[in-house]
UniProtKB/TrEMBL annotation:
Protein name: DUF2141 domain-containing protein
Protein origin, superkingdom: Bacteria
């Protein structure tokens, strides 16, 4: 059952064109507009890449394919960073406007675009407990103000045959 959750999340978060939403999500030095500063906790290691993805705050669009969202003129932002060797690990996502969005963070440990249930990690805004399906948009929401807004995401990794959760808090 957990495989269904992560297969759905992975399908929606793996872009067919990796650049969609990246330019719009870039934060710039000295910028003071609506940005989300995400502190990522509980990384299994510092291998690969972290992808922070911002979605509209509704179940229909949350974890939807980036091509579909961008084609429909809906919000989609992605930032990709290499995890730094020391804490804290942070990533910044520029939002189109202050408001409420849904947030996903993927730790692609091999640095590839895909998502592997066996090795990669995933976290969401508001840090919902993961179950057998993808979380509802409301469980992954973050509210971004008109200036840089901090939040924390705790990563989850498969920890057993059917268990999925943070390695440690």
């Amino acid at each position: 059952m957990i495989a269904l959750l992560l297969a759905a999340a992975a399908q929606a978060t793996i872009p067919s064109t990796p650049r969609l939403g990246v330019a719009e999500a870039q934060c710039h030095a000295g910028e003071h507009g609506p940005e989300l500063i995400v502190t990522v906790e509980g990384l299994k290691d510092r291998a690969g890449l972290l992808r922070g993805e911002l979605y509209p705050a509704n179940d229909k669009d949350f974890l939807e394919d980036d091509n579909v969202l961008v084609s429909a003129g809906k919000t989609f932002r992605r930032t990709i960073v290499e995890p730094i060797p020391a804490d804290p690990v942070r990533l910044c996502i520029r939002a189109p406007a202050p408001g409420t969005y849904s947030l996903a963070v993927i730790h692609a440990r091999t640095g590839k675009r895909g998502f592997s249930l066996l090795r990669d990690g995933i976290g969401f805004g508001s840090n919902p407990k993961l179950g057998y399906g993808k979380p509802k948009s409301a469980a992954a929401m973050v509210t971004i103000g008109s200036s840089p807004t901090p939040t924390t995401v705790v990563m989850n990794y498969r920890t057993g045959l059917i268990s999925f959760g943070p390695l440690h808090r």
